[in-house]
Amino acid sequence: MFKFKRFKLIFFLTIVFFLLLSMTVLAQMEFKVATNHAGNTPATLGLYYFADRIEELTDGEIKINVHIGGVLGTEVETMEQLAAGALELNRVCTAHLSVFNPLMDIFSIPYLFKDQEHYLNVIYGGVGRELAATCENSGMKFLVWIYAGARSFFNNVRPINTPDDLEGLKIRVMASDIMLKTISTLGGSPTAMTYSEVYSALQTGVIDGAENSPISVDDKSFYEVVDYYSLDEHMMIPDVIVMNLEDWNELEPLHKAIFLRVSEETQQYILEEWMAREEKSLEKIKEEGTIVNTITAENKALFIEKVAPLHKELKGTFGGYIERIQSVD
User: Looking at residue 6, what is its pLDDT?
Assistant: First the structure.
């Protein structure tokens, strides 16, 4: 009799153990985050940092799987997935985010920022917080501003020193109306195409050039297929991390607090990674044989003057945010 009771007790405890184990497994949430960047960019390293810290601080209750290199689709495609609830988190450039939140295309305006300090004060300050909050109107929770440097022109035809040097050049840009208008205003011929197509398009002469930051030129080895990189720094377009708003709302308060804490940490982590690597990338581009030229202040003023009509045209488009950004110290 005693043995039978002991058997029943062991059987009962075993059932309880497996029930508790199954409840623990069911309690764990798994999210996906997508990026079209490779595995060694500051932004992608930031995603891994973000995922690791979330798992650590939630004691494994939330696991985030990082999908790199565009394996889940282009940035617009992954944003569509996020909007449909098929993807929880996404790293996306604000130019592509603007398809869902048009206000974010403000960052595509050329020479909107005076310098790097001005740009950082905007995105990390009050104006940046207000712009971030508008994403909720589009079904997204904004989490992280990702510093992505200044964009400059690279091409196979000639160095770019003044706007006249862009005359007739076929330049790839993202599918942003403002970016397309910018190239046209500067005298070039804009061509919208996905990022994954740029290398082969340069190699085969489908386009003459494109524009991006030194780290991006290095990461994609564009120095193999272009002869000139001209540092005009015409745009400073951030990337961001956003989350499906329904998934965000389903998080318990403690998990929301952890996400916000880790978002701030990730923002700083990526900024430091970028600052540490940008100059190294520029040196590598030079070492690989691409001719790099810096635009003088006098010539940069010519670019700014050339896009002034575009600024005027866009004044009423962004609800006063252009003026507010320009007034930030």
Answer: 52
Domain CATH code at residue 18 = 3.40.190.170
List the helix and strand counts (H, then E) for the chain. Answer: 14, 11
Q: Is a pLDDT exceeding 70 seen at residue 9?
A: no
Side by side, the strands of the sheet bearing 89-93 are 62-67, 29-34, 89-93, 239-244, 140-146
Is residue 186 within 8 Å of 307, Cβ to Cβ?
yes
Q: What confidence tier does 27 reach under pLDDT thresholds 50, 70, 90?
A: low
Domain range enclosing 320: 151-236+280-327
d(CA 243, CA 264): 15
Residue-wise pLDDT for 216-230, tens only, equals 999 999 999 999 999
Q: Exposed, middle or buried by CB within 10 Å (0-12, 13-18, 19+), for 317?
A: middle
Phi-psi category of residue 56: left, alpha or beta, with phi > 0 → left and psi -120 to 50 → alpha: alpha
Residue 264 CB contacts under 8 Å (≥ 6 apart), including other chains: none
pLDDT score of 205 more than 60: yes
The conformational region for residue 91 under phi > 0 = left, psi -120 to 50 = alpha, else beta, is beta
Structure tokens at 245: 């708003």
In residues, how long is the chain?
329
Q: How many domains does the chain have?
A: 2
- Are 74 and 160 in the same domain? no
Q: Are 254 and 231 in contact (CB under 8 A)?
A: no
Count of CB atoms situated within 10 Å of the CB of 28: 13
pTM: 0.88
217 and 250 together in one domain: no
Instruction: Please determine, for residue 161, whether its predicted confidence score (pLDDT) is greater than 90.
Output: yes
| Half-sphere CA count of 107, side-chain side, radius 13 A | 30
